[in-house]
Amino acid sequence: MTHARFSDPWTSHEAAASIDQVITKDLQKCIHMILSFKPMIDEELVDAYQAQVDMGHIRQVSPQAIRTARNELYKMKHIYVSGVKKTRSGNQARVWSVNLGL
Questions:
Q1: Could you tell me which residues come within 8 angstroms of residue 42 by beta carbon, excluding any fewer than 6 positions away?
Q2: Mean pLDDT throughout 80-95?
């Protein structure tokens, strides 16, 4: 997340907030695109995102940022839970799918 210093003028604070919105929207678009190819659990989504980073197609973000952006897509009903699947460690995880009705 981009931050302006406390002592910076209000314009710097607005610019930092607008950068965050652009980054978030771009991240959401990328996650939506990845999930449109195949439903995935978060673990797979992070791996698929990282593969795109490794190819130089998108910028690096943390796994938490990916999960947060995925959750925002869920709240906006752009994706939904289509089932459960085990993670590599054997835990149950939600499978995320694109809502094609939008």
A1: 63, 66, 67, 70, 93, 94, 96
A2: 98
